Give the backbone structure.
Amino acid sequence: MAACGKGSWSDWTPCNKPCGNGTQIRTRRIFVPDAVLAQEEGLPAEQCDAAETEIQPCNEASCRADDSVECGVIEMMEPISSGSCRTRRHHPVRRCRGSCAHGDIDCCQPYLLTQKRYRLYCSDGRRTTETFDEVQQCGCLSCGN
């Protein structure tokens, strides 16, 4: 596989669990950087057409029974805004709300976000499209210091 090249690693995926031994994944492509070199070494090009995957643990702390009860996602209807620009109508906005019954070492925080694009209308007459994070799941995660 000497003629095969390796691409850069992707970013780690978000952790798939808020607690209780989750995992994160990243990948990179393996490719033929020089088809002539591969042919000289007697390697078929398809030997280099692959991907590598790495998996690492995350959020290893055990889950507590009250996490899902006290901390969760709420949805409210409100306009999306950025500076003097905003949407013309209200949209469902998801936020984390609740508390974690473990003093000040834990917080109710989003741990899985997706991105969503909105068209915004500005007070000066401009129109723009911006991307905002949208909360998918919340959990009692460590706040840090």
About this structure: Strands lie at 5-6, 22-31, 50-58, 71-78, 81-82, 85-86, 91-98, 106-122, 127-142.
